[in-house]
Amino acid sequence: MGKVLPYKGTLYGISFCALFSPSVLFAEVSREDFDALSNRITKLEEIVNKLVSTKEREARDTVSGKPIDNESVNRIYDRMSEIEENISKLVSAKETEVSDTVPVESLDSESEKDINDRLSHVEGAVDVLKDRFTIFDFFQDEIRRNQEYVCLNDHVLPVSGDNNRCPVCGAMQRSRTHERVFNYARRENISQMINAAFEEDRAKQVLLGASGTGIFQQIVSSDVEEENFGSGSFDLIFLTKPFLYTTFFIDIEAIGGNGPDEAIGSLAGLNADSGSNQDDDDGLDRVAVREVWLGSELFDKRLSLVSGKIDLGNYFDANALANDETSQFITDAFVNGATLEPPDPGPGLVAFFDTKKGLTMGLGLQSNDNSGTRITDELYAIAEIGYTTDKLLGREGTYRIWGRMNGDNGDNKGFGVSIDQGITNRIALFGRYGANENNPEETEIASAWSAGMRMSVPFLKRFTDEVAIAFGQIDKAGGDYESSTELYYKVDINEHLSLSPHVQAIFDPAGADSDDTAIVTGFRTQVNF
Question: Concatenated DSSP letters for 166-196?
Answer without folding.
Answer: -TTT--BEEEEEEEEEPPB-SSTTT-SSB--
